[in-house]
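REQUEST FORM: STRUCTURE PREDICTION
Request ID: SP-0412
Submitted by: Lab K.M.
Chain count: 1
Length (residues): 380
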Amino acid sequence: MQRQIFTEEHEAFRETVRTFLTKEVLPHYEQWEKDGIVSREAWLAAGRQGLLGLAVPEEYEGGDNTDFRYSAVLAEEFTRAGTPGLALGLHNDIIGPYLTGLATDEQKRRWLPGFCSGETITAIAMTEPGAGSDLQGIRTTAEDKGDHWLLNGSKTFISNGILADLVVVVARTTPEGGAKGLSLIVVERGAEGFERGRNLDKIGQKSQDTAELFFNDVRVPKENLLGERDGAFIHLMTNLAQERMGIAVAGIAAAEHLLEITTKYVKEREAFGRPLSKLQHIRFEIAEMATECAVTRTFIDRCIVDHSDGTLDAVHASMAKWWATELQKRAADRCLQLHGGYGYMAEFPVARAFTDGRIQTIYGGTTEIMKEIIGRSLLA
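STATUS: Completed
RESULT:
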């Protein structure tokens, strides 16, 4: 089916992204995978190409374009290229809205130009060793000391954790406030008492630096409070729909790409003297995945348009996230199976897609949390 949500401008941007991937990412990606981290030069190159700060106002050197379809194009092309390690989506679509929507004018002048140029890489630190989806379990504290915050605690599974120059930390500012006693405190590289732990060894997305972070009596200036004191819960809930849409867009793009490369493979690979594609079971597998992708694509594209228009709600974003990522997981498993032993070889794209994509049903809210959000909305 012909997609109808993109204009010529979006498709021109798609070509820009593909050129960037070809010149600045793909030649280096294998080395980044071995290193466990991408180069800072790649971030600077993304900034020069105008791929950072798409929605940041022009006065802060951003793209001044809030049309989410451009972010969708970026997510689709990075997914098809198999290069999730350079986490532009995290930077642009998850952390960007906190800075553009909550920062003061002074904070914007201080942080956003570097955010757009690639000189300032960002991370958000929410998850802790004992707290993931349950915000009430957060133990990191920020104590009001009059002229500064005193930050103590630890975070884990933090994407961009090693490279990040600016970390938005979710911390408890009112002990008795539960989930509603949390605030967003921005910690900058070099702050005394701020330490990074090991670059975590994951089963996939090897080049995406994911780290533990430790805060030991870190003195954070009062002016680094982002948004309202004790307002983090509302701030986080406001921006989750976009985070989940970004993951959903990558999910369906991954499933479609897996179907594409597997369809090509079964046409070329022979068994019992004829191509695999001549076997009825193989045709049925491809037919089922193609249908699932087509149906899912229709829904995701509708959600992309709704989100660009500002009308997408949390429930439908949750539907998109869990459905698209679970489809991605099923497609990766089935496509690897159809590749046989070659699918288990690391140099085959289907193998990396299998391990890189497994996190999709977990971060940004697990499938189970998505179902809980949907169920509560229907049965409240």
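NOTES: The beta strands are 122-125, 141-144, 148-159, 166-172, 182-188, 194-199, 210-221, 225-226, 270-271, 274-275.
Reviewed by: T.R.
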